[in-house]
Each structure stands twice: as C-alpha cells, then as structure tokens.
Design the sequence.
C-alpha cells in the first residue's frame, strides 16, 4: 500500500482545508410536477474533507467550468476557502483551474494579488486511476447509497432534490462526528 498524502494526516487548521472533489450523476430532475413534465440532467459536486472525512454536497446543473466555479463559490461561502483541492481530470475541473489561474495572472489588482498569495491549489490525480481519489469516490458511493433509497423510481423537482441532498449531507455528517465521551 502506498503512502498517504501529508494533507490527509494533518488534523490541524480548519475543516475542509484540504479536500477531495468529485461529481456524481447524472440524476434525472423534473422541471415541474405533474403529467408531461420535462426531465433534465443534474449532477452532484461532492467535496470531502481529508482531515475529518466530512462531506459537503452541491447540486449543479451541468458539467461546465462556469457552473463548477459557482458551486465552488457556494462551498467557500459556507465552509471556508480550502488550500488544496484534489480531483480527477474531469474537463470541468481542469477548465475551472485554468480559468482561475488565468484570472489571477491577468488581473493585477490588489484583490487578485491577495488571491494569488492565498490561492487555491488544484491538484489532479493521474488519468485513469480513480483509486487515487479514494475518499472522494467513497463520498460518491455513500451519497448514491442514500439517494437511491430515497428516490427509487420517482423524479423530484430541483428544490425537492436540493432539500434531499441537504438531508443526506446531514446524515453523512452525523456518521463522521466522533461521540463525545465525558469523564
């Protein structure tokens, strides 16, 4: 068995400082309820903390870099800015990393210099080796396990699916919290 990343062994700092990232899906989502409703494909962005193994779920509409950057902004607003993001070589992840680095290189304002100093490092695992992102893949498996049991064969609307994902996230967070032992 190979050595673990140093970031996975360090418990110092805050949660979601070093994260694994992956997508799950596609999931059929109804535009509205009722007969003859149109179905669209949506995806789940799964952020996994290396230190605590906590999971954060974001519902995204497609696999473009733009929607990933918006999901990343929502993640940062709720959980704080990560230092390192480890992901597979998905085109949306690579595109987002390129867009962020291009933005930081071209804009020389004080804000972009500060972001360059405290920037987010995107690290990509080797191609065709999903076992390198084991925590993220385990997060996908856990999320799909609960999602399949909730959904079954029904198609939820976007709001219903988002609410379901938040509830699944709460369930998965309860399983990662260690029990409090009082002396």
Sequence:
């Amino acid at each position: 068995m190979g050595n673990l990343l140093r970031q996975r062994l360090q418990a110092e700092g805050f949660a979601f400082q070093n994260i694994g990232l992956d997508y799950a899906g596609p999931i059929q989502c109804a535009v509205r309820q009722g007969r003859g409703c149109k179905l669209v494909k949506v995806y789940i962005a799964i952020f996994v903390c290396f230190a605590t193994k906590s999971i954060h779920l974001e519902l995204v509409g497609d696999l473009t870099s733009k929607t990933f950057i918006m999901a990343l902004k929502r993640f940062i607003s709720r959980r704080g800015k990560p230092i390192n993001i480890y992901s597979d070589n998905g085109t949306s992840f690579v595109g987002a990393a390129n867009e962020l680095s291009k933005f930081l290189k071209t804009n020389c304002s004080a804000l972009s210099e500060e972001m360059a100093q405290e920037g987010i490092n995107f690290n990509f695992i080797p191609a065709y080796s999903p076992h390198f992102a084991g925590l993220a893949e385990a997060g996908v498996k856990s999320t799909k396990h609960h999602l399949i049991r909730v959904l079954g064969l029904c198609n939820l609307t976007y709001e219903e699916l988002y609410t379901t994902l938040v509830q699944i996230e709460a369930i998965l967070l309860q399983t990662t919290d260690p029990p409090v032992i009082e002396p």
